[in-house]
Design brief:
Chain lengths: ~325, ~100
């Protein structure tokens, strides 16, 4: 049974932030592609007030030197169509177009994408009693259940829910920063610090306080001459979440890797930057052994259950494949 | 711009123009994409057909019907449980050529 809720569309950001901050039962509404599902169909979210921010002036995508500023309400399709993204952030474009479907990408915003909720079927079904993310302290049904689309990194017996964003994988690799407006102050947080690993509090997913609004993100452009690529492995060719994915950016001079950025998708409870893999790659010649060593370093200390054990090797091979493609000049 | 009606609150459409399948017909006649779906038998039970056709009309406007591969990729958000996909692709290919 759907719970009644109030719908408000304030005319300016200060009013929107005040409306949500002042009401613990209120939530922002943007593209709604996760939220409306979780409210009206699954009954997981029960806000009593929805504050629609979609007509606030937070849409623009502008280049400022070597940084791209993206309004939180820019859509996935808008960002994928941006000329600077195509030229200087090709793996961001690839990740965007590998996600969802055109009609969802027309609705889904960049702010909403970074704040998307997990697809874990046990989280999304209130009839399941055990879910530490939905009901803190209740246990995790996924650990002993039908896990497949679940995390192996940053996971534990408390929670194996996956952060399923494609876009966030290159974003954490790029050190993108989220701009946040609160009721009293603004702040900026790098995405690598924005997400909180679940630990024993899977219900707390990020650093946002109630009422804080993500107003946009800032993406540093790749230096000219850097090559990048995003590879997504999934159960069907399109319109499916990742089993594993990897985002890679490499600069290579004289056969030696001078700069490397690596992040993984489909495996982490949060978008997963792999600094250990970057350290293996930096300053060494391009060869198959190096790539395998980087992959072994990236997937360290996994927590697997029967349904997710296959991801350890699949994630490594995914990373090796995209490293080969990018190093070989085969990608963008 | 195509969106999903099942994830859109009516209140969010206030002041906006919305076209549904009913709005496609021209002076009582069918839209060319509708005619192509009939000619190529692009449906079986018909449940997904309004969504398929609205998505196909948008796909053509987006200029993403250049090949069968492209049609499949950019129509992938519309599931057909009867599996009428080959005929749907054929209908869109024909409409794109008109």
């Amino acid at each position: 049974m759907m719970q009644a809720f109030e719908y408000i569309r304030p005319g300016d950001m200060a009013s929107a932030v005040a409306l949500v901050s002042g009401d613990p039962t209120a939530q922002y509404l943007a593209g709604g592609t996760t939220q409306i599902d979780l409210m009206l169909k699954d009954g997981v979210l029960e806000p009593e007030r929805l504050v629609d921010i979609t007509r606030l002036p937070l849409r623009g995508i502008t280049r400022d030197g070597d940084v791209l500023r993206v309004g939180a309400l820019a859509t996935m399709e808008e960002l994928a169509a941006d000329a600077t993204v195509a030229e200087r952030l090709p793996f961001v474009r690839e990740a965007l177009l590998a996600g969802a479907s055109p009609q969802l990408r027309n609705m889904a915003t960049i702010g909403g994408n970074i704040l998307q909720r997990t697809r874990c079927r046990y989280f999304r079904d209130p009839a399941v009693a055990s879910c530490n993310k939905r009901v803190p302290g209740s246990g995790c049904a996924a650990v002993g259940g039908a896990a497949r689309m679940h995390a192996i990194l940053g996971a534990s017996e408390h929670c194996i829910a996956l952060h399923a964003s494609d876009l966030c994988v290159p974003l954490v690799a790029l050190d993108a920063v989220a701009h946040i407006q609160g009721p009293r102050a603004r702040r900026s947080v790098p995405l690598t610090e924005f997400y909180l690993p679940p630990g024993d509090r899977p219900d707390v997913e990020n650093v946002l306080e109630h009422g804080e609004l993500v107003t946009g993100i800032e993406i540093p452009l790749l230096p000219a001459g850097t090559r990048s690529g995003y590879l997504k492995v999934r159960d069907r060719a399109s319109y499916e979440f990742a089993l594993t994915s990897a985002a890679v950016a490499l600069a290579i001079g004289g056969g030696v890797i001078t700069h490397a950025r690596v992040a993984l998708g489909g495996v982490g409870t949060i978008p997963w930057r792999a600094p250990q893999a970057e350290a293996v790659l930096r300053g060494v010649p391009v060869d198959a052994q190096t790539f395998r060593a980087a992959a072994d370093a990236a997937i360290h200390d996994p927590f697997t259950v029967a349904g997710t054990a296959f991801k350890v090797e699949l994630a490594k091979r995914t990373l090796v494949r995209i490293l080969q493609t990018v190093a070989g000049g085969g990608s963008s | 711009m195509r969106v999903l009606s099942c994830l859109t609150l009516t209140a969010q459409c206030d002041g906006r123009e919305v076209t549904t399948i009913e709005g496609l017909s021209r002076e009582g006649g069918l839209h060319p994409v509708q005619e192509a779906f009939i000619r190529h038998d692009g449906f079986q039970c018909g449940y997904c057909t309004p969504g398929q056709i609205m998505s196909a009309v948008a796909l053509l406007a987006e200029g993403r019907a250049g090949s069968d591969e492209e049609i499949r990729e950019f129509m992938s958000g519309n599931i057909c449980r009867c599996g009428a996909y080959p005929n749907i692709v054929a209908a869109i290919r024909e409409a794109a050529g008109q």
